[in-house]
Structures
1.
Amino acid sequence: MTQAADSRVAHLPTTQYFCPSGDYDEMWRRADQDPEGFWGEQAMDLDWFKRWDKVLDWKVPYARWFVGGKLNLSYQCLDRHMKTEVKNKVAFHWEGELGDTQVLTYAELYRLTNNYAAALKRLGVKRGDRVALYLPMIPALPIFMLACARIGAIFTVVFSAFSGQALADRVEDVEAKIIVTSSGMHRRGKILPLKDNAVEAAKKCPCVEKIVVVKHTGHNVEMDPARDVWLNDLLAGCDEYVEPEHMDSNDPLFVLYTSGSTGKPKGILHGTGGYSLWIAKTMQWAFNTDKKTVWWCTADIGWITGHSYVVFAPLELGLTSVMYEGAPDYPTLDRWWQIIAKYGVTILYTSPTAIRMFMRHGEEWPAKHDLSSLRILGSVGEPINPEAWLWYYRNIGHERIGISDTWWQTETGGFMISPTPGIQPHFLKPGSATKPMPGIVPAVLDAEGKELPNGETGFIVIKKPWPGMLLDIYHNPELYQKTYWSRFPGYYLPGDYCMKDQDNFLWLLGRADEVIKVAGHRISTAELESAIVGHSAVAEAAATSRPDEIKGEAIIMFVTLRKGTPPSVEIKNELTRHLRATIGTLATPEEIFFVNLLPKTRSGKIMRRLLKAVATGATIGDTSTLDDGASVDEAKAAFAELSAGSHHYKSGERNPETKPMP
Ligand code: WT7
C-alpha cells in the first residue's frame, strides 16, 4: 500500500490556486503552541451572551471549550444578522425535485425559526428535551434545527432514507418526545411515504407524544388526531418572537447517529460553543468564503456534512446557499449543472461517488452549461481517487480552480485535514487532503503506537483536542472511551489509515476498522450482520465489502441458512428486502453468498480477510497477512470450502434454476 501511494505522489501533477494572503505555517504553529490564546482570539468573532471564564478544560478524554461562556447558535445564525445588510440577503435558494422553488431571506428564516420555536414550546418541548427530525431536504428541516437550537432542545436528524425500524432505534435511544416528519418525499419522480415510517416508529417508542407533519406531497395521509398534528395547524397563532435560550458553551446541541464497530449506531453528541466556532472557521479556511459566495453543499442534512455545512456554518457566515431536494440525475443528467448556472454557484462541495457517477455518464452533460461562476470545488465523504479528482478538476473546474478535499468525520464536527485557500494558497496533489487545519495535530502510528516515518502507512491519530470535537457518545461514556481513546491512550483515534508523504501531505486511505463506506455513507459490518440474522431463515452471517467503481465500496454478505431453506434468488431477494426494511436503502447488498459454514479460527473469530478475498475474487495468496490468528492451513481449507461450496447471487440477478412461468 505504501509503495502504491508513493508512486501516486510522485507521478501526479500539482496545481496552485489564488487566495488572500495569510501565513498557514505561522497560524498552524501558533494554534499548536498556544491553543488557548489562539482559540480565545478566534472565538471573539462569535456573539456571546456571556464571555467564557476558561478557553479549554482538557481532561482526557473530555475537552470542554469556552467554559462558562453562554451563547445560542440560532442567534449566531440569525439574530445578529438582523442588524446588518445580511438581513435581506438570500439565505437559501431552495429547489424541489419537481422544479418548484422557494427563496428564503435571512429575515424570513428568522421569522419562521421564531414561529417554529413557539410551536415546539406549545407542544411542551423544553430545554434539554429531545426532538427527532425525520424530513427530506425541504426548508422545514433547517428551520426546525434552528428552532430546536433556539429553545435549547436537543435534536436528532434521521436521514430520510432510513427505514421506520432504523428511525425507531434512534428515537428510542435518544428518548425523543416529538417526531417531526413530512407527508412524504419526492425521489426520482416517486413519492416515498415518510409519515408511515414515522407512525411505525412512534408505535414502537412509548416516549413519542406527538408527530408533527409537514405537508409536502399531495397524497392522502391518515392522521390520528390524538397523536398527529399538521405543522400548519400548529403554527396558527405562533407568530411571535421567542427569546433564545442562553446555552452554556458545553450544553449539548444535537445527537447524530453513526455506525461504528458495534451492531447499534452510536449517538455522537455535539456541543454548542466549540462546535459553532469550529465549523464557521474551518469553512472560511477551506473555501475562502466571502460576501459574494453562493455556496452549494450537495450533502443531505441527515449527515454531519449537512448539519455543519448546509445549515449552520453558511448561516453563521451570512452566506447565500443553494438547497436541492432531489436526485442528481433527475429528470436529466445535467440537473446539477443547470442549478449551478441558474443560481451562479461559486463553490460546489460534493462527494467522490457523485463525481464518479457523472464521470461515467460523460463530460458532455456539464459541458452544456455555463459553469464559469465556480471559484472553488470541494470533495468529502470517502477517499477521492486521483482519476476522479482530475476529471472534476478538468470538466467542472476547467483547470482554473482548486479542489478542497476535506477529510473529517461525524465525530470531528468539521473539517480536520484540507487545503486552506482561505488562509494561504498551497500546492495540491490529486487524491490527498493535504494539510491539517490550524489546531489539528495529527500523527501516523504503527500497531504498537510508534510514530511512523514519512512514506509509511499506519493509523492516523489526533494528538490534541480541537473545538469541534464530540462531547461524548450519548449516554454511553464507556463506548466513547473505548472507541476513540483506548488503543492509543491520550490520542483521538479516527479509525482511518493514513500516509504522510515526503512533503508532509496527508493521504487518507480508507477505514482501518469494520466500517464500510457505501457512497460515502457509513455502515458497520456488525450492524448489517445483526440485521440479517434477525430474519428467521438465517443462522449466521458476516458482512464485508468490495471496491466499487462508483460507490467506493459495495456490501457483500456471507450467509448460512437454517435447515429447510435452500439458497435461491427468492430468499436472496427476501433478505435484501429485510435489510432495507430494518436499516434502509443504503444497506442493500451487492451480492449475497450462501455458504455451509462461515470460516472461523479455532477461537471462533470470523476470518474476515478471507471473506474479503473471496468477495473481491482475490486468491488465497493475498490472505497471507491474516491478522485474525488463523493458521495458513486453516485459511486454505476454509477458502477451498468457500470457493467450492457457495451459491452467490448478485443484486438484480435472476435465479438460473427457476424456469420462467409459461
Ligand atoms: C469517514 C467519516 C466527513 C463527513 C462525511 C462523512 C471517510 C470522509 C474523507 C476524505 C478520505 C474520507 C473517512 C472518515 N472520509 N472524508 N476527504 N478523504 N476519507 O462522515 O460518515 O462520519 O464518515 O469518512 O473514512 O473516517 P462520516
2.
Amino acid sequence: MVRTFSELDLDVDLLAAIETKGYSRPTEIQAKAIPAAMDGLDVLASAPTGTGKTAAFLLPTLQHLIDFPRRKPGPARVLILTPTRELAIQIADEARELAANTDLKVFTITGGISYDEHAEILGKTQDLVVATPGRLMEYINAERFDCRAIECLVLDEADRMLDMGFGPIVDKLSHECRWRRQTLLFSATLEGKGVHGFTEDLLNEPERIEASPSRRERKKIHQWYYRCDDMDHKIQLLEHVLKSDESERTIIFLKTRERLAELREKLDSMQIPCCWLQGEMAQSARNNTIERFKSGKVNIMLATDVAARGIDIPDISHVINFDLPRTADVYLHRIGRTARAGKKGSAVSLVEAHDQAMMERIGRYMKEPVKERFVEEMKPKHKKPAFAVKKKKKKPMPGAARKAKKSS
Ligand code: ADP
Ligand code: MG
C-alpha cells in the first residue's frame, strides 16, 4: 500500500495543493481507493466517517480531468451526487482547494439556490459539478443540464441518499449518465437496506474497498450515557456536560424541529448561547449558522439529523444525543461528527427509560456496549428497565419443547 501522496502518480499541481491543505500522508481509504480509481476501475468503497473519503474521490477525478484536458468549452465531465446541500458545498470547497493550481471549474447545483443563479452557472463551461439529486433532476427534465459529457459519476454517502429516499432519482440520474466510463461509490456503511441491489445496477465489476481505521486514524471517541427521569433531569445533565471543562465545541442532536425549538428556548432562558440547523431553513440562515459555529463565535449547535448529515466541522469536542436516534446506524453517523481525522472526542447520550432498549441496540451495533455513568448529585430515580440488561435467550418453539419433554 502506498504511504505517501507522491507515490500516487498525481500531478504536481495536485500535490502542491495537498501540501497547502496540510495533508502529510494519505489515509487508508485514500491509499486504497485512489490507485484503483486512477486505473479507471469502478470503485465501491466504505470507510468510517472522518477518514478522508472526499479527497479519495476528488483526487483521482481531478487527475483524470488534468490527464485528458477538454478541447472546447462545454458541459460537466465529472458529476458528484451527495445527499444534502451543506455536503455539496463542502465537497465543492474541497475540490476548489485541491484544484487551486489548475484551471478546472467547479460548481454546485442544489436546492435552496435561486433558479436565476443557476441559469448563469448552467450556461458556463463546467468541469466538475457537485449536486443534490432532486434539483439536478429538475434541470435534466427541463433539458437545462446535459449529462452526455459526464465521464465519471461519483456517489458520495450512498447509504444516506438511499435512506433519504433518493434511490429512484439516483437510478434515473445514473441512466442519464450512461456514456460515463467510471462510477465511484462511497459510503460510511454498505449495510443499509437496499444498498446491495442498488450498487449492482450502478457499478461495473467494481473494485471493493473497505478501510478499517488504522490505529493512527481510529477515532478516540469516549462514549457514555446518563439515565434521565424526565425533561428537567435531562436539562440538568445537559447543563452539567456543557459546563464541564473538556466541553469546547458541541453538537446537540434532537429528533424533531419541535424538540429543537423547545430546547432552544430552554437554553435561551438559561442564557446559554447556541445556534441551530434544521430542515427547511433558508440557505443564507444555514450558511450563517455553519459559519458562526465553524469560526467559534458560538460553541453549541443544535441540529436535527437530516440537517447535520455529513457536515465536516473540525474540532468538535462533544456530540450530545439529547434525543436518541431512531436507528443505530444514525448513532454512528452522529458521533462521527466528533474526533475527525484522529482527534479525540466525546459522545454523550441522554437516555430516558423508554430509550433503554435503543441504547442496548446501539451497543450491539457498535459491537461494544456504551457505558453508563452517573453524576453524583443527579442520579436517576427510576430503576433501569430490566428487559434491557437481560441477554436474549433463544426460546425453543413450544411444539419442539413438548416433543423434547416426551422423548426424554
Ligand atoms: P469522510 O468523508 O470520510 O467523512 P472527509 O473527507 O470529510 O471524511 O475528511 C474528514 C477530515 O479529514 C477533513 O477535515 C479533511 O480535510 C481531513 N483529511 C482528509 N484527508 C486527510 C489526510 N490525508 N490527512 C489529514 N487530514 C485529512
Ligand atoms: Mg464524506
